[in-house]
Amino acid sequence: MALLGPLMCHLGAVDVLKGRWPALRTRLRAWGRPLFEQSRVRSAKAVLQFDGVADDVGAAAAYVEGLRRVLRDWRYLNLDEATLSSFEAVLRAGDKNAQLADAGVGARLPEPSGERTGRLPAATLKWASEALASGGNHPLLVAGTFFLRFVSAQPRSPHVARLGLLLTTLLLVRQGYEQLFYGPLEEVLARDLGMLRWTLEKANATLGSNEAELSPWLELFVGALALQAAELIDFVEQRRAAPMRSLLEERLIEHLERQPRMTMTEAVAVSGANRNTVKIALRKLHHAKELSLHGQGRGAFYTLAGPRNG
């Protein structure tokens, strides 16, 4: 495939982040823990929209668990049928719509033509492994094409997008794109569902016959990764001058990652520090825009600030 200007720019932008990753990773380990955790929540919400599933707590939790397994065990997971089956079991267990698969309820991706309905997921997994092993294909283009081929292979699955994105994330992380630990690809892709579906439908209609028609989809897919990379770099740059957190501050942040809110009394109990020390730590986190303060006096409580609280 001839690489067009915008696509080349997107590939370059993502690979710039990949090149800078060793230095950025150190900063993100210090500052990015809330981003790390909250990204999973945003990912689940976005990918449920993408699959056309109503807000389903069980399905969201199942996707978060699948993503956690990818990011925890990626060194030991291969892009093969065993991994596919394990992720499918996780998603099906939490998806109340799974029993509607045969009826196509919940599937919102374009319907492939008859000749492509036989393209089994196993063949798609094999194709991706061979394309990467050849060394002649950019991993981001392989990832984008893999996702398209995968969702075309099983259009009536109610969780095809979730399953495809888990496998695509695994593929990318194994190729060195570890920024996916901190930025949810799903959220960026789902920002314009109309354009997403249009480009998928156009690419799907010519898959295997006219590779030129894949360009809009690949531009959108790699462009989403480029946008995610830019936002992640911006996050680091904004916080470059910020002082490192103390152990007490880390403990308070970690508690708020597990609980939606925290009062002063709870902060003292969780930290084990005296009230004045905790007050200073909370004030510092609030001034640094790490935490938001709600209310006054005894009824006041803190939450994680900004998008991490969404």
Order of strands across the biggest sheet?
1-2
Got a strand count? Answer: 2
Sequence of secondary-structure elements: HHHHHHHHHHHHHEE
Q: Which CATH architecture of the largest domain would you pick?
A: Orthogonal Bundle
The level of helicity is 55-70%
The parts where pLDDT drops under 50 for at least 5 residues are 98-119
Taking the alpha carbons of the first and last residues, their distance comes to: 39 Å
Task: Quote the CATH topology of the largest domain.
Answer: Fic-like fold
CATH-wise, what's the superfamily of the largest domain? Fido-like domain
Structural class from helices and strands? mainly alpha
How many domains make up the coordinates?
A: 2
Describe this structure in words.
The protein is mostly helical. The protein folds into two domains: 5-238, Fido-like domain (Fic-like fold); 247-309, Winged helix-like DNA-binding domain superfamily/Winged helix DNA-binding domain (Arc Repressor Mutant, subunit A, Orthogonal Bundle). It is built from 13 helices and two strands; from the N terminus they run H-H-H-H-H-H-H-H-H-H-H-H-H-E-E. A two-stranded antiparallel sheet has the order 1-2. A hairpin with a 6-residue loop joins strand 1 (291-294) and strand 2. Helix 3 (57-73) runs parallel beside helix 7 (160-174). The longest helix is centred in the N-terminal third of the chain and has 27 residues, at 5-31. The protein is elongated. The two termini are 39 Å apart. Residues 98-119 have low confidence and may be disordered.
